[in-house]
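Human:
Focus on the backbone:
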Amino acid sequence: MTDPVSGNTPQGVVEMPRDDEYDEDAAQLANDNPIYALIIGNNDYQAAEFNSLLGAVADADAIENILKTSMDLRDSQIVSLRNATRQQMLNGFHKLEEITKDKEDPCMIIFYAGHGAQTPRPQGWEDYAADYEMIEMLCPSDLGVVGKDGKVVEGIPDRMVSALLNGLAQKRGNNITLILDCCHSAGLNRDEETDRISRSLPDPPPITAEANIIPTSPSLEPLNGEPTRAVRVATGFGGKYATSHVLLAACGRNKRAFEDRKTKHGYFTSALIGFLQGKKVESETYLSLMYNIVMPTWQTPHCMGVNADRPLFNRRGSRSDPSYIPCRVVDTSKDAEGKQQVTFTLLAGLAEGIVPNEVFDLYKAVPFEGEKNASPPFGMMIATDVGTTSTVLQRLEGKTTPLRVPKVFYAKRIAWSNAPASIYCEDKTLLQSLSRVTKSSVSVKAGKVLPTDLVDDAAKASLIIKAEGDDVYLERNDPLLEEHLPKRFPRPLNRNAPEQIQGVISAWRHFNYHLKRGGRDEFPQIRMEMHYLEPEDGDWDSEHPEYHPVGKNLLAENPAHIVVSDDHTKRPLGLTLYNDGDLNVYPYLFYFDPTELTIMPWSMVAEGAGGDVDPPLLQRSQLAVGYGNGGVDPLMFYFEGDTVRDIGFFKLFITYSPANFRSLNQERSPFPRATRGGGGPDEDEDDTGLELGEAERLAVEKELQKMHADKWGVKVHTVVQVKG
């Protein structure tokens, strides 16, 4: 291709198919799944020591109204609770389960507005919440009063909420959205001198270990068919990467959510309603909500869940195309001559694999995977100043880009500046058919075959294309893999489907690039272990199993050679990430499968509507993945067909500041078959309601985090499975 700036052909630039072919009439499919909702709003708290709120009931009313007016819900589809007691809130979950009986994959929305609180973790919950000594809870209206049984009414802890959601997902499918407009931390309840009221309670009654017992309901019955994805107990109210539901939270774990004294609404609910009004919900994802929602700088909503890249309320199955990277107009100013200066920022940088001089098409929206963009690109930009997790884009000379650009837009690579691949193919006719491919039905992330990719010696090639009649096979020259995998990919491709072949080549290039690129900094304080898991109570048939790690660390050596017996193929596996350092980190864990060419995100960081995102791996702490409060599914070893040896890679990307690694995702195998399993605070407080001494310590830690914000690194563990 020619450089859009100089007109020359740059070295090492890989041209990508363009989205020039778009569908003017493309429209999202209507939601065929019925929507049901549990709506809870608690203003009035019975215990004298807890202040009541002004806007939680109004928030619940507003959400219920938009569900009825914009999504056509009837009263029979809504469980509506106001100023609900603990038992009424628990009964609400069971009622939601009851009214969705006999419905196929219903969409369930659970909304709670009211007080939230933190309390010390009960004894016996150490394996569940090993990373944090506090647990979160929802606050029913009778919190703290003495019940008929003579006991003080407790809050509903995160563990119980998670189990309730897990049970719903097992029986009804994981088409669940949990929306919480409450605090996730303790602190002073009311900011008397401001227009803000905090939705948190100080010193709630402690949670006992028995609080996780889930009341039975006569409506419980086995799920007909498998849920859309496997489910596990989530951390807090959403897990680090929850599988049972998507969480939309008003704020982070140790932050407070506020309501406006003047409008008598929560800031988060107001922003959510403002976003939803007038929108085609089926064309928006949870991620686009996070990128576009307008919030005060002092409150950052969080979004968590494996389905965060699906349409809002999961109205269809496809995920948004991860090759479209979000961008923002982050700074506007005037130069010395009074001309408006605008900075365009791509929300990805060196850590995510961006390098200078890469060229991007610009779009106003993101299509779903496998679909064409409904609109053509509105402009083109080039990467100039590439930082750790963000990149400055500039307009290209000679290319038309509007002077006014949306505040949030999306960029798709059309030219990579990383070194081109070396490909060998003797069949010139086949090469010609591949070179004519300019568009693909799959999401091409890393370009088509160009003459600059080709070598004249198979021994020098990293990928060999061989034609045998109408079958086309791909073979790789990769010393890292050849000891454990055949050189030839197992499934043939169709010679008469060049788009399919091109898609596999592109996926292979994307896979190799992200597997083999290194990090910039060492993170010796971060380590990773993998263990087999067993149920805490020893009951493998439990409806809500909670696992804990047992036995030796399977990653004690690298590469790890693990002999897997038939019994072990049925045992779940979990990872534990350890942070032995003094700074919090953001870990992004992927599993790379070289047979399927998939890159599966296993543990990711929440998306925040702002920069103040909770770090999952705290200083001197550990993070469970696949068990406890890790919120993701355990893995299992297994062998396909006659396979007796396999290999995979756990790759952990580590940063000191929030990043956006979703562009690495390659969850679909490119081969024609499904993938394999696998107002401000008071003077004596800071904004979290902490005492000054604690606030000063946190301020020092925050400055240290800033000093290290540009550091990033990787940890790779190779796992070789041998059938024994």
User: Anything to note?
Assistant: The mean pLDDT is 81. The chain has four domains: 14-22+322-416, 35-314, 429-516, 526-723. The helical segments are 56-71, 86-99, 158-172, 267-276, 286-292, 428-435, 498-516, 692-707. The radius of gyration is 26 Å.
